[in-house]
Amino acid sequence: MRDEDESDGSTGSGMEAGASEAVAECVLCRAPTEYPESHKGSTLCPVCEWREAERAACSG
Question: pTM for this one?
């Protein structure tokens, strides 16, 4: 029974939760993200996350 409890998306991985729940859209380009729709805050796809990190690192 322990395996069943761990496979319901409670492990914290966005990909596992995405299998049972709809995936959130990126707020910048509307591409699918690795986060479920229930994720709080602004969700970014991996490409936009990388670009935002580059901008933040070079802004100084």
Answer: 0.58
